[in-house]
Amino acid sequence: MKESLKRVLLGVCIVLAIEAIAACGYILIKHNAKKVKEKKEENQEKIVDVDMSTYNQYLDYIELGDYKGISVKKGVPTINDVDDETVQDALEYYLDDYKEYKEMDRAVKNGDLLNIDFEGKIDGKVDDNASAQDYDIVVGSGEFFDDFEKALVGLKKGKKTELKLKYPKDYQDEDYAGKDVVFTVTVNKIQECTYTPKLTDEFVKEKVDGCNTIAEWKEKIRQEELSYLLDEAEEQVNSDLYEIVLNNAKLVKYNELIEKYPELYDESNSEIQSEYEGSAEMFGMSLEEYLEFAGMTQEDLDEEIQLSIKGKLVLASILKEENIKLTEDEYNQYIEENYEDNGFESKEEFIEYFTKEEIGKVCLMNKCYAFLVEQADVEEISYEEYNNSFEDAQLEE
Fold first, then answer.
1. Residue 343, class by beta-carbon neighbours within 10 Å (0-12 exposed, 13-18 middle, 19+ buried)?
2. Which of 56, 86, 127, 393 is deepest in the core (most CB within 10 A)?
3. Cα–Cα dist 48/326, whole Å
4. Three-class SS of residue 286?
5. C-alpha 290: how far from chain center
6. Residues 48-83: b if buried by 16+ CB within 10 A, e if exposed
7. Are 16 and 294 within 8 A, CB to CB?
8. Is this model's pTM higher than 0.70 or not?
9. pLDDT per position in the chain (397 positions), as tens?
């Protein structure tokens, strides 16, 4: 259970790191490293006035290092990098949406969809990472360890039951492997699956847009997954490259900076706190519980705030140094491509919610990424080779 939370947390931390570096706020960002237009051509177009002067006043406190001609590697996925297991998992995930369930007034059986509350205690102390409210689980799905799911069979709705169990010795999270745990479980709802769709060409033709056969659906899934991997590869290049740029830069007289401009510290602190509060809410935790789970201390938060400030000044400094401007066409194109993905019904709602200034800063950040990639020496390698090198680097750390 904790391991699945950690995987999500890793994703959250990656997002936080990117946001800290680039000060991108809450807007979903698509980093497409398109060729940067020549300045002459750019100046012929109408420019969107984005006020970066707020950050420009702090630029005496940042020293840019090398940010052009940097060498980075890019793992380029191909259709062969989408394995059959990924496709099959996607098929089963989609098919689950068409299952039908009926609420039952009986004891739990294997295969039932349950809604449960559970609290796990280790050494007599409640462990928030082994506890949840209103949690949905299909018994026998393998979502939790086997003994936990087997112990749910036979439980009845509304009855609080104590389960004395032991985590498997080979449990994926070593902190829990082999430990005794006592779960207090309450079943809120028991549902039996009354209909499971069969994967046939007829089902595909009826339910899947643009596909008439299972083979066509599998190919569509494979292509969608490849598209996702390609986008991910582009974003990874941006992230790797900007991390180098950030490390090459130097934040000077930091204590003087935040004493003279406390609003800069407060801004980054507020952004980071807000992100962590959102993540904590997603997991049903308080901010303090979430930070404890993540192993975060106040010192760690202060380091993140400093990194956020450094990233903002690096970005603003490059934009000023290279005279990077935002054209009206680029601004409008960004809104056109992103408002629906962010859950808005109209472009007007999107702009009203985020404000023109915030959107403009995100667009400028994207242009900064594009500029850096255009100036970089990007070596394309196989997707497998890149992932292996990443895993090796993680092991070395």
1. exposed
2. 127
3. 6
4. coil
5. 16
6. bebebeebeebeebbeeeebeebebbbbebeeebbe
7. no
8. no
9. 433 333 333 333 333 333 443 333 333 334 343 443 444 344 456 776 666 667 888 999 999 999 999 999 999 999 999 999 999 999 988 888 889 999 999 999 999 999 999 999 999 999 888 888 999 999 998 888 999 999 999 999 999 999 999 999 988 888 888 999 999 999 999 999 999 899 999 999 999 999 999 999 999 999 999 999 999 999 899 889 989 999 999 999 999 999 999 999 998 999 888 888 888 887 777 888 788 877 888 888 889 999 999 998 998 899 899 988 888 888 899 999 988 888 899 999 988 898 888 888 888 888 888 899 999 999 999 999 988 886 655 545 5
Distances (CA, A) of 247 to 106, 243, 305: 60, 6, 15
Matching residue, tokens 């209909």: 195
**CA proximity to 18, closest of 256, 241, 213:** 241
Report the C-alpha gap between 310 and 299 in whole angstroms.
16
Beta strands (DSSP E) in 77-144 are: 100-103, 113-122, 125-138
- Report d(CA 133, CA 294) in Å as an integer: 20
What lies within 8 Å, CB to CB, of 204 at 6+ separation is 211, 212, 213, 214, 216, 217
Q: The tokens 């099959």 sit on which residue?
A: 88
Gap between the Cα atoms of 302 and 305, Å rounded? 5
